Amino acid sequence: MKAWQFSQVTGGIEKNLKLNNTAPLPPSANSLAADQVLVQVLSTTLNPSDYKFAQIPVVGNLIIKKPSSPGVDYSGRVVASGANSKKISSEDLTPGQLVFGRLDLPTQFGTLAEYTVVPRSGCVPLTQGVNLDNAACVGTAALTAYQCIVPNIKSGDRVFINGGSGGVGSFGIQIAKVKGCHVTTSCSSVNVELCKSLGADQVIDYKSKDVVAELKKMQKFDLVVDNVGTPSEMYWQAHNFTNSGTKFVQVGGGLSLGEIYLLLSRMMWPGFLGGGKIAFQFLGVANNYDHFKEIGEWMAQGKVKALIDEVYGMEDKGPIRAFERLKTGRAKGKVVVKVAEP
């Protein structure tokens, strides 16, 4: 099969990706275990985690075997499936059926390949009316937004989303609105109208205003979701612009020693010793069949849409250019790679 692979990450994953026209199928492809599905990948989308895990010094080499294909999000077609244990869904999958979802990280056999083996918890029938590129965007970004927001709010709550124009943020605005929340978000000047079009009630332009200072002027919030990690004082000041019982949920972040130290201090430094004064959660997204299914239904109903920045192909260095675009940090929504035609 065709697969984009890397064997090292010196200089960045995008400098080391090569197209292998004779890559082997994943080892389990011909002997699928229960709740495993062999999928022909049609579209995939990239996430920061696709390169951040691989580029962790020393550790990246230990957790990801080489050569490796990056990518965990996909939409595609079922080729074969192992026995259905019924623990995840009573619905059987059939060859030729269109599906979408997400692999678990870390993985050696990712979705920048023509075929991959996915877990049943991350393999959901495509909802009628949702196209393949849009469905491929759901995997990590929409699921992360869902798990940040839905368990932590009720209708009428006020939600602040730091970083509203990226993959997770754009889904987060829409999901919070579907659940009946008032949404304030931050973004750069050029994306203000975009965030408003997604449903944001208030938008703070971080290029021209101090985000934390602006938040302190507003009615207090019931949930804070931080997709950016900056400004660094936001968590330490959060008690000044949130209601009692509010949770501060951080998504992603850098992997430098300084950034890891900051994350650990937020998680472990008690408030009475000068640490943060509201509950902190670092969200580790986990596949959930029911969450995927609900997001797919919202998309079919037109309540939630994927925001796509750019679509690349598998040829002509498409995945390399896709990673380059992702790493600029300026993508509006998701970066898609079309692996094969339906």
Describe this protein with a few key phrases:
single chain; 342 residues; 6-stranded parallel sheet; 15 strands
Q: Please give the share of residues in helix.
A: 25-40%
Structural class designation: alpha/beta
Strand content: 15-25%
The gyration radius over C-alpha positions equals 20 Å
Order of helices and strands: EEEHHEEEEHHEHEHEHEHEHEHEHE
**What is the overall pLDDT average?**
93
* Count of alpha/pi helices: 11
Number of strands: 15
Q: How does the major sheet shape up?
A: 7 strands, mixed
Distance N to C terminus: 16 Å
The protein's oligomeric status is single chain
Shape: globular
Poorly predicted segments: none
What does this structure look like?
The chain is an alpha/beta fold and 342 residues long. The protein has eleven helices and 15 strands. Strand 12 (242-251), helix 9 and strand 13 (279-283) form a beta-alpha-beta unit. The two termini are 16 Å apart. The model has no long low-confidence stretch (mean pLDDT 93).
